[in-house]
From TrEMBL, chains A, B:
Site (Cleavage (non-hydrolytic)): E59, S60
The EC number(s) this enzyme carries: 4.1.1.50
Annotated source species: Leptospira kirschneri str. H1
Role played: Catalyzes the decarboxylation of S-adenosylmethionine to S-adenosylmethioninamine (dcAdoMet), the propylamine donor required for the synthesis of the polyamines spermine and spermidine from the diamine putrescine.
PANTHER family (UniProt xref): S-ADENOSYLMETHIONINE DECARBOXYLASE PROENZYME
Metabolic or biological pathway: Amine and polyamine biosynthesis; S-adenosylmethioninamine biosynthesis; S-adenosylmethioninamine from S-adenosyl-L-methionine: step 1/1
Keywords carried by this UniProt record: Autocatalytic cleavage, Decarboxylase, Lyase, Polyamine biosynthesis, Pyruvate, S-adenosyl-L-methionine, Schiff base, Spermidine biosynthesis, Zymogen
Active site: S60 (schiff-base intermediate with substrate), H65 (proton acceptor), C80 (proton donor)
Binding note for cofactor: Binds 1 pyruvoyl group covalently per subunit.
Modified residues (Pyruvic acid (Ser)): S60
Family: Belongs to the prokaryotic AdoMetDC family. Type 1 subfamily.
Protein name: S-adenosylmethionine decarboxylase proenzyme
Keyword hit for Cytoplasm: no
Signal peptide residues on this chain, from the entry's feature table: none
Length: 125, 125
């Protein structure tokens, strides 16, 4: 099945999470640290503040939305296969965002009725 | 707060969910129907099968991953503000994917500690 980590990062550093280039760099590095493979990414900075971005990976996606005005980021790490180290990604994000308070929920995706594991997609296609 | 709809579409039409252009069209139309505003989208087709795509919207994101070989799609509709009709999007996706079995979970995002509503981002910036 797929594993979907739904993380709330509170009390983050304003400047960091309002900088879309920095947020993109941090997210791409977290993908690398997890062992996932980046396919494409798209990031956008809103005015006056806020960043949204998604990295499509072979194993599904990493997504982030930031509300710098509240020191808050919503992060999703949705991966398939058993080889991804989600915790490494989350630890890195917590450190880089300077978050003092993280809440994490993990859901399994595609369980009902399938009875099979969802494999990540082949790389390089 | 943000509203995150996590939907599993089972028993979908193989050809539809294996066609990345069609999946992108359907997802973009579902964004329109919900009343959300598309910022950027990125879609990718894997070989031999499977589509991944994300639409970044002012209100957060719509994401999809398809496993045509299992007739399964994982869909996320993450929106902020009270003006988005998620159900219209889900109904449209169910119809277009020919899904006979849909499972939906809704989570609230960014609730803990904030005590404020998460507004969507201004359009056009």
């Amino acid at each position: 099945m797929g594993k979907h980590v739904i993380a709330e990062f509170y009390e983050c550093d304003y400047e960091t999470i309002n900088n879309h280039e920095l947020v993109e760099d941090i997210m791409l590095k977290s993908v690398d640290l997890s062992g996932a493979t980046t396919i494409k990414s798209v990031f956008h900075r809103f005015s006056p503040y806020g960043v949204s971005g998604v990295v499509v990976v072979s194993e599904s996606h990493f997504a982030i939305h930031t509300w710098p005005e509240y020191g808050y980021c919503a992060v999703d790490v949705f991966t398939c296969g058993d080889l991804i180290d989600n915790q490494a990604a989350l630890d890195y994000l917590k450190e880089k965002f300077g978050s003092k308070n993280v809440s994490v929920v993990e859901m399994k995706r595609g369980v009902l009725n399938l009875g099979v594991d969802l494999h990540h997609k082949p790389v390089g296609n």
